[in-house]
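Running this now, will post back.
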Amino acid sequence: MRYRVMFGVGLAVGYILGSRAGRERYEQIKRMAQRVSDSPSVQEAAGLVGARVSKVTDVAKTKVSHVAKNRLPFLQSENGVQTAKHDETGTGWPDDDRAVSPHP
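Update: finished.
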C-alpha cells in the first residue's frame, strides 16, 4: 500500500511541475530539437553513422552466413542444389555420419 501512495504522490508532483512549465516550454524544447536535427553538421554525422552501420551489418551478415554454411551441413549447397556429399533423405547430413552410431 505504501508504494501505491508514493506512486500517487510522485504522479501528482509530476503533473503539477509539468503544468507549471506549460505549453510554452514544451514548444520551446520542440523548436530547439527541430533546429538541432535540421543542422547540416548533425545531418552529416547521421549520414556517416548510417553508412558505417550499413557497412558493419554487411560484413556481419557475410561472416554469419559463412560460419553457418560451414557448421550446418544442410546449408552447404551450390546455387541451391545439394552437393553429392549429402544424402537423398533431405536432412542434409553426410552419409558417413549416419553409419557411425554412438549406440551399439
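The longest strand covers residues 77-78. More later if anyone needs it.
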